[in-house]
Specification:
binds zinc ion; Quinone Oxidoreductase, Chain A, domain 1; globular; 2 domains; 364 residues; 12 helices; alpha/beta; 23% strand; Rossmann fold; six-stranded parallel sheet
């Protein structure tokens, strides 16, 4: 892993990863990358290639999904030039799996400390993920090349379109959030909000064996996709949701997944959850939520939160994408853009473009 330097990605030494056996040629190799220089200042330009250290492998990024966290970083900048992107599918160029198309996990972990051993490897103290906002990564999937430790190369069990493979990361986020016994036992589960996170949660609920999945979404395209992905019923938030759900379960539903990330839907979650039910807060509202403990305690509600994913969950999400051909994962990909169009793609997302996932085909 290349550590952040004061002057950013352009200051690192370079080797030619395309040279025979990956040896240094002594020449500087430039790669194309979308570099975030400051708030909304994203430029596609040449920069020095990342250098594989030790047994790290180098991979050529084929596709990178744009994430809400990338958009947040784009709005405020990172204090130094950085190449964002952590939803990565790439062709492995060096090491044991050279020639394979793989997902590159952004998680960088030691696999030995207590946190890693508990499946909390994305909290490992050694973490410095690729392009991720939280972990201070520098070379992300919006650059043509990335380097990573060999065990961050996740191979799909069957061939998958690289753009669809990138979905393994956001899908693993939903898999982690819903990996709970009460979800597996749920007779009914309501997903509030069908953006990428909510739609991924519908698929995760389906794979967990939830009997009845109800989605709440107003945008027609997203509501239709919710149905295609496995929602048994889709309600419009303009309807009286608590009343409509009385027909599903008069005492309230077993599990609610809040995926809209706004305060009013957290209130809706309280209203529709059954006593003893579980509310999973998947959305990340900008503002703090005034939490009335008494009110939530009087229904004995379990409130669950979750973020990111372990390496194992990332792999199992990829396995599902590659093998569950009955689930139209490709429908998540609503736009593909070449690297040069990345700044416009961010501007469109910031302006509220109705896209589920924009995939940058970095090395197209
Ligand atoms: Zn993401
Ligand atoms: Zn660790």
């Amino acid at each position: 892993m290349v550590e952040a330097s004061q002057s950013g990605p352009t200051s690192v030494a370079c080797t030619d990863p395309f040279a025979p056996s990956g040896r240094s040629t002594g020449k500087t190799r430039a790669v194309r990358a979308a570099i975030l220089h400051g708030p909304t200042d994203l430029r596609v330009e040449d920069t020095a290639a990342p250098v594989a250290e030790g047994d790290q492998v180098t991979a050529r990024v084929l596709a990178n999904g744009l994430c809400g966290s990338d958009l947040s970083a784009w709005k405020v900048g990172r204090g130094q030039p950085v190449i964002l992107g952590h939803e990565i599918a790439a062709e492995v160029l060096t090491g044991e799996h050279a020639g394979r198309i793989a997902v590159i996990s952004q998680t960088n972990c030691c696999r030995a400390c207590p946190l890693c051993l508990e499946g909390l490897d994305h909290y490992c103290r050694s973490a410095a993920g690729l392009g991720a906002v939280r972990f201070g990564g520098v070379f992300g999937g919006l650059g043509e090349l990335v380097t990573c430790p060999p065990d961050r190369v996740l191979l799909p069990p069957a061939d998958v379109d690289p753009a669809v493979m990138t979905l393994a990361e956001p899908f693993a986020v939903a898999v982690r959030a819903l990996d709970r016994p009460e979800v597996r036992a749920a007779r009914h589960l309501v997903v509030l909000g069908c953006g990428p996170v909510g739609l991924m949660s519908i698929v995760a609920a389906r794979l967990a064996g939830v009997e009845r999945i109800i989605a709440v979404e107003s945008r027609p395209g997203r509501a239709q996709l919710a149905e295609r992905l496995g929602a048994d019923l889709v309600l419009d938030p303009a309807d009286d949701i608590p009343r409509a759900l009385k027909q599903v379960s008069p005492v309230g539903v077993d599990v609610v997944v809040e995926a809209a990330g706004v305060l009013p839907t957290i209130e809706t979650a309280w209203r529709i959850i059954r006593p003893g039910g579980t509310v999973i807060l998947q959305g990340l509202p900008k503002d703090p939520f005034p939490f009335d403990v008494q009110r939530w305690a009087l229904k004995e509600i379990t409130v669950a939160t979750s973020i990111g994913q372990s390496l194992e969950q990332h792999q199992s999400a990829l396995d599902a994408i590659a093998t569950r051909t009955d689930i139209p994962f490709d429908a998540f990909v609503t736009r593909r853009v070449p690297l040069d169009d990345t700044p416009q793609a961010f501007a469109d997302l910031a302006a509220g473009a109705d896209e589920i996932k924009i995939i940058v085909e970095t090395s197209r």
